[in-house]
TrEMBL record:
Tree of life domain: Eukaryota
InterPro entries on file: 14-3-3, 14-3-3_CS, 14-3-3_domain
SMART domains cross-referenced by the UniProt entry: 14_3_3
Origin species: Populus tomentosa
Lineage: Eukaryota, Viridiplantae, Streptophyta, Embryophyta, Tracheophyta
PANTHER family cross-referenced by the UniProt entry: 14-3-3 PROTEIN (PTHR18860)
The family this protein is said to belong to: Belongs to the 14-3-3 family.
Entry protein name: 14-3-3 domain-containing protein
Domain annotation 14-3-3: ranges: 13-290
């Protein structure tokens, strides 16, 4: 049975980072969250996180929320099956269990959103950091919108839109089209349009444009790019030229990250285009957001 770890208040910044890495290696992500939260809040302001610290924070929360989202999907699927079988006793039990998972989802989202609003976003000075945190804020409001209903869902969706748009404004002016954070934002923003707002055309358009403007001039991608170019997305020639000019500036790690996200964009486009063509009459797998 999981127990709450008491995290000391008097450790150095480097010690919290080391413990977070240790927890990650041990796959104890709840404790990884605690170590990174302590680093961010601490007894005194730590200022803007460096890239390593920022990524550790993201990985910690992403793994905790990821397992909870997967659990919610499984339980919700079982609930639908039990309702179909008219098994009222099991339906009651499953609903109670789903509520427990939703409470845990709400708690972890509230935790990171507090850190973002109180510490991380106000202390961010670099454009890359601002986009990273605003995107993260949008992500966790989107996760809330996945299971909330009624006014709560509308509020979460509205907060998601505001956060993603704020991140998009900065990314469009300050980050290259090939930047992995800008691409990740486009990926998750398009998932929001598809999954939460049910606007498949807008989702496809956003994913398609981001995919096209980030493509290198390679023989193997020519046919894909031509096919996407002639689908109705609006004029993105200028952004396309800008992307080509920026490709050579990517470092090895950024190139790998960008390539992965571009693959996810392409996979979603294939999935969503199929959805539009069949009129959503066939069951489709979950769309992909940033890992």
């Amino acid at each position: 049975m999981a127990t709450t770890t008491t995290v000391p208040d008097n450790l150095t910044r480097d010690q919290y980072v080391y413990l977070a890495k240790l927890a990650e290696q041990a796959e104890r992500y709840e404790e990884m969250v605690q170590f990174m939260e302590k680093l961010v809040v601490g007894n005194t302001p730590v200022g803007e996180l460096n890239v390593e610290e920022r990524n550790l924070l993201s990985v910690a929360y992403k793994n905790v929320i990821g397992s909870l989202r997967a659990a919610w999907r499984i339980v919700s699927s079982i609930e639908q099956k039990e309702e179909g079988r008219k098994n009222e006793e099991h339906v009651v039990l499953v609903k109670e269990y789903r509520s427990k998972v939703e409470s845990e989802l709400s708690d972890i989202c509230a935790s990171i959103l507090r850190l973002l609003d109180s510490n991380l976003i106000p202390s961010a000075t670099a454009s890359e950091s601002k986009v990273f945190y605003l995107k993260m804020k949008g992500d966790y409001h989107r996760y809330l919108a996945e299971f909330k209903a009624g006014d709560e869902r509308n509020a979460a969706a509205g907060d998601t839109m505001l956060s993603y748009k704020a991140a998009q404004d900065i990314a469009s002016s300050d980050l290259a089209p090939t930047h992995p954070i800008r691409l990740g934002l486009a990926l998750n923003f398009s998932v929001f349009y598809y999954e939460i707002l049910n606007q498949s055309d807008k989702a496809c358009s956003m994913a398609k444009q981001s995919y096209i403007v980030s493509q290198p001039l390679s023989f193997e991608m020519t046919e894909v790019r031509i096919a996407l170019w002639y689908m109705p997305t609006g004029d993105c020639y200028e952004a396309f030229e800008e992307a080509i000019a920026e490709l050579d500036t990517l470092g090895e790690e950024s190139y790998k990250d960008s390539t992965l996200i571009m693959q996810l964009l392409r996979d979603n486009l294939t999935l969503w285009t199929s959805d539009v063509q069949v009129g959503a009459s066939l069951p489709l797998p979950d769309q992909l957001d940033e890992p």
